[in-house]
Design brief:
685 residues; alpha+beta; six-stranded mixed β-sheet; globular
């Protein structure tokens, strides 16, 4: 690696018979007016002050990509700056030609390679998406200009900035002189000397636009591959088209969350991706093939792929409507089985119907969602350790019907009571979805509720005098009990018109303007809106909801493999005396361990990775999980008898504990994370 300071115009771009090639793994040219205006301002300032201006780093590989005519330099970092400088030089050149300025020839020699055929004149070859517009610009083919292209937009922007500078007294030569004062650090890589482009690229603190997660993943799978062009065309481009650039980052996070037991976030996703590829020893082709496989399913999940049946697409749309993307980890396996013809269309529909009903019931009944990530990402392996395609739905139903945890299936009775008395309005997306489902399921016409809003019949403003007068003594009780419940809610496009109007006024507006006939039937049929009528309507709508979100009941599948005697849970404090754990299972993930201390450390690292802030708060407050007053977690090593640190974080926990104390410690920790201790079990010798 050879780093040295250079002038970006005189030392880098001006060299003859040189081609800067932007490799396929690089992102498109995406500098906006903000970056371009800043660069132009820096150029003017550099000329005015007659001082050099540092503008970043250019990294490229040279030598291994040389042709017989041109020296090809493969740009690793700095394509945004190089492309922008060339666009600005082209704008200066065109202005010089139009004005007959003497610097025309100098600008021409900066822009184009000399003494070679026309096909080798250009000094830059952008990525495929930008190449057509760049060539059109350089060849003055205005009929081919796409004004949505950043290349063309920035060219026109620089023309305006140049005109503005001329009006202020600067010449084209002055602007060029300012450009010649732009300094860079130029780093030339040589693979034969052991330079690793990927490692160097990731370590550079570039002054350009921050790379997105998709940029980093693309660079990783394509940068150092000899077949990068083939991989780009065969896998990466179709992947972008299938998912869409807007959703690529979310897809990678969802994919990794499905594949790994680690907690995946936007901040750590790239590091986890690299870790995953290396641990699984995946080639670039292997990982791209796998990403492509699941991209088809994910594109259906987010509504970009309508290749499945209308009923399947409708269920997937419903999951999006009620924000149940946590399901995707489980759905990946369901759709993989469907694509492999292990299950048929009817089975997929049964499963999706079950999951929709389960999700709606869980939300309405206000069950915590903290366990859902662990539940869904491990559920398939827990259900189908051995293939059971003939009892596919039955296995899923049986699990939720018989699980002793809070993830158990919610029956009709609990769902019915929650629909009547729970605060449905607080869960607005599900509230609107449930109301619209009731309307559309029982109406001859489908009501498009996208632009409609939720309306309270009994108004939200507690001091609405007209309602207090109408309801009299029962107002306060009715208000506190039923305001945000199903019986008092409807959907309409006239929220602002209804407000705190009297019941009779609201009825007239609803009758004349609302198309939600099923939802409004019982509202329009009564003369006053009191507790009895609200409750009567709630019961009617709740019955309709139960029918829509019913659970198909089947005979419970009995598991033949009963847990052995040496499997324990966190309530078995006395039974663990004298035992040694060999593994533990937490939300379906099984981890091998050597002893109780090792089991504690493994779980703590898992929980910390899941949500660091929870453990940090416990440490700051010198966590004491038992009545003995002994500190188990702290930021001060001296608080503990025998401590262990979490990965150089300055967070310490106690490991000088008995088996029973460790089990109690683990149980309290899991509860602090608002997770279910029943999901933890361990096996001992």
């Amino acid at each position: 690696m050879q780093p040295y300071k250079a002038w970006i115009v005189s030392d880098t771009i001006e060299k003859n018979k040189r081609l800067f090639k932007i490799p396929v793994y690089q992102r498109n040219y995406d500098w906006s007016n903000v970056q371009c205006e800043k660069l132009f301002s820096d150029i003017v300032e550099a000329f005015s002050s007659q001082k050099k201006h540092f503008t970043g780093t250019i990294v490229y590989i040279t030598g291994n990509h040389s042709s017989s005519v041109l020296n090809e330099d493969l740009i690793i970092d700095g394509q945004q700056r190089i492309t922008t400088i060339i666009i600005l030089l082209k704008a200066l050149y065109d202005k010089a030609c139009a004005l007959g300025d003497p610097i025309t020839d100098e600008l021409h020699d900066l822009l184009f390679n000399r003494h070679c055929d026309e096909e080798f004149k250009l000094k830059l070859k952008p990525v495929k998406a930008d190449d057509k517009q760049f060539k059109a610009l350089m060849q003055n083919d205005e009929n081919s200009f796409n004004k949505n292209s950043n290349i063309i937009r920035n060219y026109y922007l620089f023309n305006k900035l140049i005109d503005g500078s001329i009006e202020k007294g600067l010449s084209l030569k002055d602007i060029l002189e300012g450009m010649k004062k732009l300094e860079i650090v130029e780093i030339v890589l040589d693979k034969s000397q052991g330079d690793d482009p990927q490692v160097i690229f990731e370590s550079i603190n570039s002054t350009g636009l921050e790379l997105s997660l998709a940029d980093k993943v693309r660079n990783f799978v394509l940068m150092d591959d000899e077949k990068q062009d083939e991989l780009f065309e065969r896998y990466w481009l179709p992947l972008e088209e299938t998912i869409g650039n807007k959703y690529l980052a979310d897809y990678f996070i969802t994919y990794l969350d499905y594949k790994m037991s680690d907690k995946i976030s936007k901040d750590n996703a790239y590091d986890k991706f690299v870790k995953f590829c290396k641990e699984k020893e995946l080639s670039h082709k292997n990982i791209l093939e796998d990403l492509s496989k699941y991209a088809k399913y994910y594109s259906a999940f987010i509504g970009r792929n309508n290749s499945y049946s209308s009923i399947i697409n409708k269920y997937l749309q419903d999951f999006r409507t009620i924000d149940q993307s946590t399901l995707y980890s489980f759905l990946f396996d369901i759709f993989a089985d469907y694509e492999a013809n292990n299950i048929n269309h009817e089975t997929v529909v049964r499963v999706l119907s079950f999951l929709r009903s389960y999700s709606v019931r869980r939300i309405v009944c206000e069950k915590s969602s903290n366990s859902l990530r662990g539940l869904y990402k491990t559920l398939y392996n827990r259900l189908f350790k051995e293939p059971a395609y003939d009892k596919y739905y039955e296995n899923i139903y049986s699990f939720f019907k018989t699980t002793p945890t809070k993830d158990k299936l919610i029956d009709d009775s609990e769902f019915y009571n929650s629909l009547i008395y729970k605060n449905l309005y607080a869960k607005k997306k599900v509230c609107k979805f449930l109301l619209s489902s009731i309307e559309n399921e029982h109406s001859h016409e489908t009501l498009n509720v996208e632009n409609l809003s939720i309306e309270h019949v009994l108004p939200q403003k507690e001091n609405a005098l007209v309602w207090k007068t109408a309801l009299g003594a029962e107002y306060e009780n009715t208000y506190n009990t039923y305001l945000h419940t199903l019986g008092n809610l409807t959907i309409t496009g006239h929220n602002s018109e209804l407000g705190t109007k009297s019941f009779n006024e609201k009825k007239k507006i609803i009758k004349d303007l609302s198309k939600a006939n099923v939802l409004n039937e019982l509202i329009l049929s009564v003369d006053n809106w009191n507790e009895a009528n609200i409750l009567n309507r709630a019961k009617d709508l709740a019955k309709k909801a139960i029918e829509i979100f019913k659970i198909e009941e089947v005979e419970v599948v009995k598991k033949e493999n009963i847990a052995p005697d040496h499997t324990y849970n966190l309530n078995d404090l006395e039974a663990v005396v004298g035992t040694t754990p060999v593994s533990y299972t937490f939300y379906g993930e099984t981890v091998q361990v050597k002893n109780y201390s090792n089991m504690l450390s493994s779980l703590i690292n898992t929980l910390y990775d899941l949500e660091p802030s929870v453990f940090e708060d416990l440490a700051k407050n010198k966590f004491k999980p038992t009545t003995s007053g002994r500190i188990y977690i702290s930021t001060d090593q001296g608080d503990l008898r025998r401590s262990k640190e979490i990965s150089n974080t300055g967070l310490y926990y106690e490991i000088n504990l008995s088996a029973a104390s460790i089990i109690q410690f683990i149980k309290v920790l899991i509860e602090k994370y608002d997770m279910d201790p029943d999901e933890f079990e361990f096996v001992c010798n």
